Amino acid sequence: MFTGIVEELGEIVAIENLGDASRFQVRGPVVTEGAKHGDSIAVNGVCLTVVDIIGDAEGTRFTADVMAETLDRSSLGALGVGSRVNLERPMALGGRLGGHLVQGHVDGTGTIVERKLSEHWEIVKISLPGELSRYVVEKGSITVDGVSLTVVDAGPDYFTVSLIPTTLALTTLGVKQSGDPVNLEVDVLAKYVERLLGRDGGARDQEVTP
């Protein structure tokens, strides 16, 4: 489980084609501190499992295998050597929940539609798959490329977020341009509520049916 508070801007330093998967090598000295084989690290909001930790003169890196399913259903397939990525380690039990509960399970991808500069922040409009729009509400939480954000405006096929200077400086959202894909994870609590309400409704319908 993650919080959507990015710890470090990492870099893809190598991508190995494994046929039905790819092995990413990612530079990230902060998130690799104390990490070992089998640990989880979120890369642009996608929970990946550490295969190896590499430390040498080029800096500390970790490798992670990314299945074809993940490459197809997330924006990781669009990354190349030199791409910057948002990195976060899982939240420690008893730690502070600075953002919101994030699973690292991408629900879909969106696209940067528009950016509007203000004096102290920036408004970013992002396209949203129609099937996810029911989980996105004004002032609710959403994860964009692993960053926990508050929704400003929610439309049928888009939403907007307001990015403060810290977010612009310390995450990839500061350099994303119109047309760039981003990973989206909606608030898991909304999905649980929907499922529970659906079951309750179904039970009541059965009770009143002659």
Characterization of this structure:
Lumazine-binding repeats lie at residues 1-100, 101-197. This is Riboflavin synthase. Pfam families: Lum_binding. By secondary structure, the chain is α+β, with helices and mostly antiparallel strands. It has helices spanning 68-73, 165-170, 188-208; strands spanning 8-17, 21-27, 40-43, 46-56, 59-67, 84-88, 108-117, 122-127, 141-144, 147-154, 158-163, 181-186. The strands form two sheets. The chain has a six-stranded antiparallel barrel with strand order 1-2-5-4-3-6. The protein has a six-stranded antiparallel barrel with strand order 7-8-11-10-9-12. A hairpin with a 3-residue loop joins strand 10 (147-154) and strand 11 (158-163). The N and C termini lie far apart (45 Å). The relative contact order is 0.18.
Total strands: 12
Query: What proportion of the residues is helical, as a percent range?
Result: 10-25%
Mean pLDDT: 90
Count the DSSP helices: 3
What is the string of helix and strand elements? Answer: EEEEEHEEEEEEHEH
Net shape? globular
Function: Catalyzes the dismutation of two molecules of 6,7-dimethyl-8-ribityllumazine, resulting in the formation of riboflavin and 5-amino-6-(D-ribitylamino)uracil.
Protein name: Riboflavin synthase
Organism: Streptomyces demainii
Pathway: Cofactor biosynthesis; riboflavin biosynthesis; riboflavin from 2-hydroxy-3-oxobutyl phosphate and 5-amino-6-(D-ribitylamino)uracil: step 2/2
